[in-house]
């Protein structure tokens, strides 16, 4: 079974732009589930977002991710965020990690190398689905690093560079 490469990072670090650039290069990519859920919640007047009901939000992300993980993938499939990101968001808010997350067989679904986009003030912007501040992003980044390292993934820090250079960096590793 082929496994997915995770592109992770705090809000506003260029993950979605990078996923789109990888798609243009012909790679199979899955868009960020969390952003899709936030958008749906906002359209429906719901509150299951990271800033209103984090636990409810994580539950929705978990369920939707399980569905996505059952879709067969190619050896070079990329996902905009992985399920371990839920753990980082929970830790950043000092919430308990549910057993179904802490015991999840991440390595069965994800490649051992994870690409991490660091906070980058020059490209950081807010939008309705990303209201966090740059300081919030830095805190989330710290917890992403901790979670992925605790789960024994190898983090490859993306350079603060053009999309073309970031794609080339990933291609040099995969």
Itemize the secondary structure elements and their pairings.
Blueprint: E1 4-9, H1 15-24, E2 28-30, H2 33-44, H3 54-69, E3 77-80, H4 84-92, H5 99-102, E4 110-117, H6 134-150, E5 154-157, H7 163-173
Parallel strand pairs: 1-3, 1-4, 2-3, 4-5
Q: Describe it for me?
A:
With 174 residues, the protein is α/β, with parallel strands linked by helices. Helix content is 45%, strand content 14%. The protein has seven helices and five strands. It has a five-stranded parallel sheet with strand order 2-3-1-4-5. The protein is globular, with a radius of gyration of 15 Å.
What's a concise summary of this model?
The chain has 174 residues and is α/β, with parallel strands linked by helices.
- Helix fraction, binned, reads 40-55%
Number-wise, the strands total 5
- Report Rg: 15 Å
Poorly predicted runs are none
Relevant terms:
five-stranded parallel sheet; 174 residues; alpha/beta; 5 strands; single chain
């Amino acid at each position: 079974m082929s496994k997915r490469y995770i592109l992770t990072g705090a809000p506003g670090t260029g993950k979605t732009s990078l996923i789109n650039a990888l798609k243009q290069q012909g790679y199979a990519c899955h868009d960020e589930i969390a952003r899709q859920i936030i958008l749906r919640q906002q359209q429906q007047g719901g509150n299951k977002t990271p800033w209103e009901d984090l636990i409810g939000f994580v539950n929705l992300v978990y369920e939707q991710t399980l569905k996505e993980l059952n879709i067969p993938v190619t050896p070079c499939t990329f996902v905009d965020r992985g399920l371990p990101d839920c753990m980082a968001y929970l830790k950043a808010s000092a919430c308990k990690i549910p057993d179904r997350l802490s015991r999840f067989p991440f390595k069965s679904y994800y490649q051992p190398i994870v690409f991490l986009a660091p906070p980058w003030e020059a490209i950081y912007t807010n939008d309705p689905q990303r209201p966090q501040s740059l300081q919030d992003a830095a805190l989330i980044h710290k917890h992403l690093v901790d979670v992925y390292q605790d789960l024994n993934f190898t983090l490859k820090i993306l350079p603060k560079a053009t999309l073309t250079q970031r794609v080339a960096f990933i291609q040099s590793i995969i």
